[in-house]
Amino acid sequence: MTAAETPNPPAAPANAWQFVRRGLLSDYLVLWLSVVYFAVLAPFTPGFASESNLQTILAYALPILVVSVGLTLVLIIGGIDLSVTSMIALASVVGGKIMSADEGWLAGNALAIPVGLLAMLLVGATLGAVNGFAVTVCRIPAFIATLTTMMFVSGLAIWFTLSRKIGGLPPNFLLIGQQLWIVAAITGVATWLAHSALARTLYGRWLYAIGHNTRAALVSGVPVQRVIFFTYVVCGLFAGLAAILLTAGLETGNPEMARDNLLDIVGAVVIGGTSLYGGKGRVIGTVFGVLFLALVDNSLNLLGLHFYTITMIKGGVILAAALTDALRNKLLASR
Amino acid sequence: MIEFINIEKSFFGVRVLKRVSFAVKPGQTIGLVGENGAGKSTLMNILGGNLRPDAGELRMNGQPYAPQSPRDAERARVAFIHQELNLFANLTIAENIFIGGFPRRVRWLPFIDSRKMYERTRELLREMNLSYAPDTPLERLSAGERQLVEIAKALAFEARLIIFDEPTTSLTVRETERLFAIMGQLRERGISMVYISHSLGHVLKLCDEVVVLRDGAVVGNEPASQFTLERMVSLMVGRAITQIFPKRDTQPASEVALDVRGLAQPGVARAITFQLHCGEILGVSGLMGSGRSELARILFGLDPCAAGDVRLNGELLNGLPPRDRIARGLAFLTEDRRAEGLCMEAAIADNVALVALPRFVRTWARFVSTADSRAAVATIRQAVKLTPSARDEQAVKTLSGGNQQKVVLAKWLLNEPKVFILDEPTRGIDVGAKHEIYRLINELAACGAAVLMISSEVEELIGMCDRILVMGSGEIRDTVEPHQFDRERILRAAIHDGALS
Questions:
Q1: How many Å apart are CA B15 and CA B7, to the nearest integer?
Q2: Interface of B with A in 15-44 (CB under 8 A)
Q3: What does DSSP say about strands B269-277 and B315-316: parallel, antiparallel, or unpaired?
């Protein structure tokens, strides 16, 4: 029995320990941490709490949230998708190539925007389907399958545009990314949909069951292969949606878009309490995780730290989150 | 000589061992029996250095013995052969035996003296009657052979006391016989043994003395000759169980629930034909590797099948995946609860609801009605008599084996199946829980469900079934009717080649 190793009684007064313990066990831990972080840093960081900066934080965090939510679903079934950022890059240039007034295939056409949007979502969904096919039918481990997709697709995106950025996107398309409330509404709806699907539908229950024990799920009548395939498609679809928000926000189709964000995305999901082993995780946790990382990233930028320093600190934050999660699990087990 | 003197141990304020005292004399074999949770494993973990007692002491040859770690126990020459073997399938036999301390060429240099290691391993394997080269990867060995390697490992450090924890659960009849022969040799060499098992017949046969534990206290400690099976069971349970196998008054109906004709898959099954009637419990006996579990998997659609027809209530099931067979009323309790039966980390309620989830879907968006599923779970857990102390949101892994099996049964019952395939439904669970599982199976049959019950315990099949099929090398070798029920006939059919009349 492992139960013999109870944590040592703390030296601090019992109620202080109780407080820490309750905080650690709370589902909202990361939200509280974000609030505390904000409150502590706001006085020292010029412009951190200003309205325009808060808008900047949101504009950065919302598209990241969309991808992270899709990835959360994949992590819950015990999978991984390393190709999400490359999907964003390819979707971005494909959208640009269709809609751009300078070089777009449908430049000036009234259908340019709807076709462009659809194509971007389709790029994500198709690549998701490729991943899903590789994982379910070919039985390639998700890590390798999506790693190769990432390498191939990021290369493809650069080859497709000969490494150039695509400008001249239609102003009506840009609106989607320029108006914060539109970005927020789209992100909100997508997040809410994923949350309800996960928390309330048959599909959500099946995801958790597969993540806990794939074979038991299969024996219990869960259409395992179909659900896994579908989940990768959904993840790709969310990446396509994020590509729309980012492309409109940055006003260019960029073959290197989101290239440096992959670890932020995985990190945010893990900080939000989703387990890389599968079976555990919630969309709301991912929301908090993205918020927290966005706050850290933004504040360190404002403090004038170098990009590489910021990356190091973020690495430390993600490590701390992983340690906290381990501690949480130990507390839960001893309860 | 090992003495336990007033050993006490509590977990979270629950006393799991209460002033346990007994002694193991040199060369003696002690049987340790009790229900799951009686404290057997805790006691042996103390002896093996994994746990420390709260009070009381252990003495070895009169000297105090307080192992702080399994390594200490090894130094004191106490070996522990676990239920789930602690071996490395990817390493060779020799490496497994010497993993605790390889012989070195030069004492303080990290170079292994392979020649010495292989030579010693060869000797040990000869003693175990295993004809393998020392550098054979362990994964090529069967479960029974691995057990012998584990014993060889104990002999390698000249163990004086070997603890066996449920050694026969994954062994075939032949392997069990071989293990017992080896244990006989060990006894002749003066090695003491503690034998923990739920197979009480084996305990009576093998042991000099039997210690019965109930709720952490010794309730019986006498020479094996003083015990009968019934007396051991009543001591373990604390009440007399008049019948291990509860009686069932109902008879099988005439209509056929599951009709299997000419099922075949190369290397797995050959010309399997039988009919399972409503209200019938049909036993399937056979050794490991006889194709009994493989048959179950084919019937459930988990494994492929080259030829033959399977009909459920007249409807052809061929080629359907498990999901569609479940929808038509099939249920499958797998042999291995942990690997295929349950999501161990997930909550009891989630496990119980998993199969029947589509029944609780209310809207077009496939929202699951939490209220409905909760109510259904509450009803079904009473029906299977799941321990009331377990909360719905508690993880399944915290339950005892018997309660875990009830969760598996509950999850199938919730879907109201018509045909149950039960593969080893009572494996690794204690006497009391076994009795309740038997009662549940009887109730199912009484309600008209058809049950295909696979088991390696022949007594269990004889006690429960209306007919028994005996399988060997993927074929049905014999069909035994109740008036012919006989342990020997069934075993002979299972072991010998060719059908017996």
A1: 11
A2: 41-42
A3: unpaired
Find the range with the poorest average confidence among A19-28, A95-104, A152-161.
A19-28
- Contact predicate A268/A64, CB 8 Å: yes
**More reliable by pLDDT, B105 or A191:** A191
User: CA angle, corner B497, sides to B493 and B499, nearest 5?
Assistant: 55
Q: Which of A89-98, A266-275, A297-306, B262-271 has the highest mean pLDDT?
A: A89-98
d(CA B347, CA B365): 24
Q: Which residues does chain A have within 8 Å of residue B323's beta carbon, measured at their own beta carbons?
A: 221-223
Over residues B227-275, the pLDDT tens digits come to 888 888 888 877 665 567 888 888 899 999 999 999 999 988 999 999 9
Q: Token match 């009605």: residue?
A: B369
Query: Which chain B residues are within 8 Å of A196, Cβ to Cβ?
Result: 365, 367
- Contact with chain A for residue B51, Cβ under 8 A: yes
> What is the C-alpha to C-alpha distance for residues B23 and B5, in angstroms, rounded to an integer?
8
Token pair of B328 as six digits: 């038509």
Contact between A107 and A100 under an 8 Å Cβ cutoff? The reply is: yes
Measured distance CA(A112)–CA(A99) in Å, rounded: 5
Give how far Cα B236 sits from Cα of B145, B197, B239, Å.
31, 12, 8
Closest chain B residue by Cα to residue A334: B12
Q: Which of B167, B211, B299 is nearest to B31 (CA)?
A: B211
Which of B79, B98, B80, B78 lies closest to B88 in space, CA to CA? B98
* Contact yes or no for A219 and B367 at CB 8 A: no
The mean pLDDT value of chain A amounts to 90
pLDDT in tens, A121-153: 999 999 999 999 999 999 999 999 999 999 999
Supply the pTM of this predicted model.
Answer: 0.81
- Chain mean position to CA A52: 24
User: Which of A219, A222, A276, A335 has the highest number of chain B CBs within 10 A, making it the mutation to test binding with B?
Assistant: A219
State the ipTM, two decimals.
0.85
Return the minimum-mean-pLDDT range out of A18-22, A228-232, B67-71, B257-261: A18-22
CB contact under 8 A, A212 and B345: yes
Cβ–Cβ < 8 Å for A214, A224:
yes
Nearest residue, CB atoms, B323 vs list A209, A216, A221: A221
**């020479």: which residue's tokens?**
B223
Question: Nearest by CB to B343, which of A1, A202, A212?
Answer: A212
Nearest to B375 by CA among B398, B363, B364, B359: B359
Encoded amino acid at B389, one letter: S
- A221 to chain B, any CB pair closer than 8 A? The answer is yes
CA distance B145 to B96: 13
Confidence of residue A5 (pLDDT cuts 50, 70, 90): very low
CB burial class (10 A; 0-12, 13-18, 19+) of residue B291? Answer: buried
Looking at the complex, report in whole angstroms how far the Cα of residue B398 sits from the nearest Cα belonging to chain A. Answer: 10
What are the residue ranges in chain B where pLDDT is below 50?
A: 498-501
pLDDT at B363: 82
- Ordered by where they begin, the domains of chain B are 2-237 (3.40.50.300), 255-329+419-424+449-501 (3.40.50.300), 335-416 (no CATH)
Residue A9 has pLDDT above 70, yes or no: no
Q: CA A157 to CA A255: how far, in whole Å? A: 5
Output the CA torsion sign for B164, B169, B170, B175. Answer: positive
Residue A165, pLDDT > 80, answer: yes
**Amino acid residing at A86:** S
Report the top-level CATH class of A48-334: mainly alpha
* Sheet strand arrangement including B467-472: B330-333, B419-423, B450-454, B281-286, B467-472, B475-480
Whether A279 sits inside 8 A of B346 (CB atoms) is: yes
